[in-house]
Fold this protein.
Amino acid sequence: MEIVINGAAHRVADDISLERAVSLVSDAATGVAAAVNGDLVRRVSWPTTRLAAGDQVEVLTAVQGG
Amino acid sequence: MAEWQTGDPLVLAGQKFGSRLIMGTGGAPSLDVLGRALTASGTEMTTVAMRRVDPASRGSVLDVLTERGIKVLPNTAGCFTAAEAVRTARLAAEALDTTWVKLEVIADEVTLLPDPVELLDAAEQLVADGFTVLPYTNDDPVLAKRLEQAGCAAVMPLGAPIGSGLGIRNPHNIELMVQAAAVPVILDAGIGTASDAALAMELGCAAVLLATAVTRARDPELMAAAMRSAVIAGRLACRAGRIPQRRYAVASSPPVGA
């Protein structure tokens, strides 16, 4: 199936976990937050959160600013 | 050290800071330059922005802060609505394990001025959520009071638009805010050089938050050291109490016996 991570389309296995999806763009153990279709998902819930085709995943971290 | 050098911490939401200079990290040409500037500034709290991860990027601004024991303060830069700002603050809290947020809700990309209606709305929501909210606001004493009443831990008026380096365009309003506020007033944005930072402190601000004036200076490390000294000097001058300004001279040597 296809999902969108940070604006880019990714072909992934059906029923992929959010944890696996995040790992496609970041290997950071800390300092990262994720949202699915606009809703924050706590890190502890990433392994058990299953994604569906078309889901929009945002993976954010801290950058220079302000 | 003497009491006057050590006995005057900045207190925000019950937390004490020895430095009254809060730094931003935007605009530095490299993480190495940023790190040296942060060290020279003596800052104990520094802002970061939240953005999509870039798999190609090397090094992290978070490492620069962690190595120096500097508290990270996420901002909501780039948000135009209360809903966007609240969502960004929650993501930052999750990513960075902090409930402190520099709240920015801007009206447009030309002036980067705060949108007061959205700002107050976001502040109320985040305070209700348990956040320690430090709002970037206009130099408007009335809005500052409303933000304080909403439960913000400080108010952070601009001296001039972000990155403009125009200094403090309305010192009278900053003074009014300081006189009326029960929470710390932190001058945020517009600082161009050290005398601007000193003036902010002389007006009674509790701290100064700046980034561009240091990160885009010809020598960021040197300007950071200048800002550190300016904030200390301005604070001491404020506490010491300036003399009244007079139209005519007042002799400082004895007038008789010459």
Remarks:
- Chain B touches chain A at residues 24-28, 31, 34, 47-53, 55, 60-62, 72-75, 77, 87, 90-92, 94-97, 102, 104, 211 (CB under 8 Å).
